[in-house]
Amino acid sequence: MTLRLIATGGTFDKHYDEIRGELTFADCHLPEVIRRTRMTMPVNLETLPLLDSLDMQDADRQRILASCRAAAEPAIVIIHGTDTMRETAQVLGAAALNKTIVLTGAMVPYEIAGSDALFNFGFAAGVAQTLPAGVYVAMNGQVFAWDRVRKNRAAGVFETVSGS
Amino acid sequence: MTLRLIATGGTFDKHYDEIRGELTFADCHLPEVIRRTRMTMPVNLETLPLLDSLDMQDADRQRILASCRAAAEPAIVIIHGTDTMRETAQVLGAAALNKTIVLTGAMVPYEIAGSDALFNFGFAAGVAQTLPAGVYVAMNGQVFAWDRVRKNRAAGVFETVSGS
Amino acid sequence: MTLRLIATGGTFDKHYDEIRGELTFADCHLPEVIRRTRMTMPVNLETLPLLDSLDMQDADRQRILASCRAAAEPAIVIIHGTDTMRETAQVLGAAALNKTIVLTGAMVPYEIAGSDALFNFGFAAGVAQTLPAGVYVAMNGQVFAWDRVRKNRAAGVFETVSGS
Amino acid sequence: MTLRLIATGGTFDKHYDEIRGELTFADCHLPEVIRRTRMTMPVNLETLPLLDSLDMQDADRQRILASCRAAAEPAIVIIHGTDTMRETAQVLGAAALNKTIVLTGAMVPYEIAGSDALFNFGFAAGVAQTLPAGVYVAMNGQVFAWDRVRKNRAAGVFETVSGS
User: Fold this and answer.
1) pTM for the complete prediction?
2) Is A52 labelled as part of a ligand binding site?
3) Do B19 and D112 touch (CB under 8 A)?
4) For residues B99 and C101, what is the distance between their CA atoms, to the nearest angstrom?
5) How confident is the model at residue C162, as a pLDDT?
6) Which residues, other chains included, contact C13 with Cβ-Cβ below 8 Å and sequence gap of 6+?
């Protein structure tokens, strides 16, 4: 088995730019993260443009969908901003690709003390191998179905919503 | 669903004792780790005596088995040293408890730069919720059946062995 | 000897607010930093309002000056934002207090990987004990006189300017 | 001014060997540490054999002395194990080299959470530029004269002893 990992940015991958004094994107952290996990399973990393998910447009979600569609691997983990993770999950879920696609991200950037990034990535990499085909959000140590999840922005956690 | 987490020590939980100048055990890191993960699923943490797994005796494995047997939760993650993780998995696997039990640990202690601990814990917490009942070792981003796994000590990775 | 430490905010003390998704101020990191240094010299920590130094007004600099004037200790380290460190140094320098006052800060926040905060604090704590009375900026591993320093914002480093 | 930095090992530079499961020496951390400090002053790094200072022999101390003697720089920082830092300081102090030589180290390795290494290095780099010629131990946020210092091993701190 091989895992496809698609990096799209989000808080997980934010980097502190010391000249501008703000969090932005530079090199993707995923190559370092993958080394650090000591994964022996092959991982194919695909780096899409790194975006704050609040800045994502329809075309960006279509590009993610196209990557998922083109992927040869049956298990895909997508690193994504939390603010519109649900919207991307809905685009992917509606496409019904017959692959296991797991979106995850982080509340605190990988490079900041106390980050949840590495835990979330581990969690997503695990359930991507064990869940049936479908689209899922994996955050806060839980698996959510793509059509029954929302981010509670005031609390900073994901929660289940009743399906339609 | 509630997750049971059983801490037994191992490299994951080693602490640097600055007076003695060596790695040993002090307070268990799991309470901090759990907070950091931002898990919203309830987690019941049970801390057994923290041991280097090379120092584990039969009685120690029987105590872990007793904890698994007594647990009300159907999903259990055990933090364990890597050197005899296989031996404990065999004790638990032979008991056939009808629960999902996942052993994990770390090659580098949680408190040392570049540690795989948080990734491994996330991975294990994910697959513990999604795998059928059984006993598994979750290391190196892979799930191993309890009776088909060994640690390759020279390479520092877990690998599959043919079942008997 | 006792060292006075005055925290005023700046990049050194920025904290990532995971709900708002931005760097801001919360609890001052200095109590933790002081424990971590294992300093055996007594340190009196005074925490002024934590500010981005670009937001500092004249009144804020006067408050820092008042703290320096009131301090019983002959050696003072001030943690300060880098963008207007020079301006505060000039206010303090012009007051000619007959104490050794050293301003320092960080280019990368203490809680972000690769931060220079702990190095800069150590450097400042050292030279505050060894320099004659006066006002200094200690950044980039160098001591600058208060009236001969500026921040090169494009390069992100402090440099000497010819005195007037 | 240029600073000479001599790495000799010690706790500061210990690395966790994940195959052997113990702290040992691998590549010296100082090149990374120097980059991280954003020092603009030139630093010449000389890496001697990295040793636990309990393993240092007379020949090792003579080699450190020879490096100090040969150094063109008037200010030298030596990274050294804490257990025999005093002994090396005495060898260097007796040689009366007319340079400012500052020994420092760490109680917790650089790569372990909560390390004092970066603070100590900053402190030493500061006082090496500001103290008169002589040999000093810089630990716990204090400067000690080479002939009036000892490590209190039970408490894990350096302290002043009366001179002879």
Assistant:
1) 0.97
2) no
3) no
4) 64
5) 82
6) C7, C25, C28, C29, C30, C50, C79, C109, C110
Question: Residue D156 and residue B22: Cβ atoms within 8 Å?
Answer: no
Q: Which two tokens stand for residue A19?
A: 């000249």
The amino acid present at A144, given as its one-letter code, is F
Could you tell me the domains of chain A? 3-160 (3.40.50.1170)
Task: Give the C-alpha separation, D118 to D75, whole Å.
Answer: 19
B40 burial level (CB within 10 Å; 0-12, 13-18, 19+): middle
Contact status, residue C155 vs residue C164, Cβ threshold 8 Å: no
Q: Cβ contact (<8 Å) for D122 and C121?
A: yes
CA distance D59 to chain C (A): 31
The pLDDT averaged over each successive group of 10 residues in chain B (164 residues) is 96 97 97 98 97 97 98 98 98 98 98 98 98 98 98 97 73
**Residue numbers in chain D where pLDDT is lower than 70:** 163-164
> Is the predicted pLDDT of residue C81 greater than 70, yes or no?
yes
Q: Is the CB of residue B108 less than 8 Å from the CB of residue B118?
A: no
| A59 Cα to chain B: minimum distance (Å) | 31
Question: For the residues of A21-74, what is the DSSP string, one character each?
Answer: TEEE--S-SHHHHHHHHT--S-EEEEEEEEE-GGG--HHHHHHHHHHHHH---S
pLDDT tens figures, A116-139? 999 999 999 999 999 999 999 999
Query: Is residue C164's pLDDT more than 70?
Result: no
Would you give the distance in Å from CA C74 to the centre of its chain? 16
The yes-or-no answer on residue C82 being catalytic is yes
Interface size C-D, in CB pairs within 8 Å, comes to 123
DSSP string over D83-105: TTHHHHHHHHHHH--SSEEEEE-
